[in-house]
Design brief:
Layout: H1 3-12, E1 30-31, H2 34-44, E2 49-53, E3 64-68
Antiparallel strand pairs: 1-3, 2-3
């Protein structure tokens, strides 16, 4: 390991594996199939929701997000 990495790690207060929070908000969970999204909503007890396809309509793949109504 090079010296500048050791100095940087010492400044951070730990080893390279030490996680530093990035301050990013939690993103909504996404699903590849409608069935998996519906199953997750039932398990979580979400009753009023709609599924949004995040991909374009021309796309062959799909990506769904559960949106509350």
């Amino acid at each position: 390991m090079s010296n500048h990495v050791r100095i940087r790690d010492a400044k951070r207060g730990g080893s390279r594996g030490t996680k530093i929070p990035r301050g990013r908000k939690v993103r909504p969970k996404t699903f590849k199939t409608e069935e998996s999204a519906k199953k997750y909503a039932e398990e979580q007890g979400i009753k009023a929701y709609k599924l949004e396809n995040l991909k374009s309509t021309e796309s062959q793949t799909k990506k769904f997000r559960i949106a509350p109504e």
